[in-house]
Amino acid sequence: MTGRSRPVPRAERFEAVVAGGGPAGAVAALVLARAGRHVLLVDGRPPGAAAGSFTIGETLPPAARPLLDDLGLWAAFAADGHLRCPGTYASWGSARLHGHSHLLDPHGHGWHLDRDRFDAFLREAAMAAGALIRRAVVVGHRRSAGEQHLLVRERSGTVRELRAGWVVDATGRRALIGRRLARRRRQDRLVAAFVRLGGAGAGGYPGDPELRTLVEAVPEGWWYTARVPAGRVVAHLTDADLAAARLRTAEGFRRAASCTRHVGERLSGYDPAASPAPRWTAAHGLRLCPPAGPGWVAAGDSAIAFDPLSSQGILTALHTGARAGRAVDRCLAGDSGALASYVSFLDGVADAYHRHHARSYAEERRWPAYPFWRRRNGAVPNRRAAGADPVRGPA
Prior knowledge:
The chain is an alpha+beta fold. Helix content is 27%, strand content 28%. Strands 6-5-13-14-15-12-16 form a 7-stranded mixed sheet, with no helix packed on it. The chain has a 5-stranded mixed barrel with strand order 1-2-8-9-10. Strands 3-7-4 form a 3-stranded antiparallel sheet. A hairpin with a 6-residue loop joins strand 5 and strand 6. The C terminus is likely disordered.
């Protein structure tokens, strides 16, 4: 990330403030800046990635290409060196692998992203369009006299107040603004334990040529592994109350992965001694209800978060970021129907997600007595909470 941002005006007053510098927030700021709006992007992450750090959520499906093209970003993205993803393999519903190829997809192949580089690329595009950036985290929010007031803490520790006509909450699952204004509906208790393995070669060890994502169901949940530019990501998905204690150590996680039938084979060439301790993150479906109101909209995971099985998380973040930016621009122009249109769009996304999620988990019937699968195949789904797409691999 380069320091090309311009100084923030002393007035600290903007037409719109976007909180969160991930894909949804960066695209919302990009759209607003291109519309000529005075917009500030508040990003709490330090510039550049810390050594060894990475962001989980690495698969971008082929359907992202027309959106990136519409945003004027396709050529630069294509030249940025992300790994090609030609499809997936899944051991789901049976012990053998079933393949899904992108060969016949009209948009071509998908991508395994270097997420930190991809997110920085989107922020750079927003700043090039005229968005300002402030390195800070949101610590407070209130609405007064028709304006949004945000308190942000800068890296120096200084707390400042920002005023705006509109705020976009793109702070991820934390929904730092939206959770004060709406109710969050959680789908289940899904969590992910994950590691990134490296090696001597670029993107892994030289003998790891497999670029397809692999998904494997097991009695306690499911696993996936995918190549990324800096190595190979391995993750185990289960419910928080079902997670075995051994998964919290490097050795325990590695042993559990090696006991799988297919994922373990993908890891056989990596040095066990170099396996780090796993990190953990929430992975359940999540919906903010409502996702917008007077002076504010939510985008990305703040508005709707998916079970990673969908492989649609980053794509949905891009779409909701663009839609949120356009909705705010329309609201600033006096369009009274812009918010309702945005909420209707998100309702459609949530309904499709629910249908596909229920169908995907229903395909796995080998372990009906195990709590993880009994919870997903024995309960009546909540239509408005969330769902997932057919088995395509994790997002």
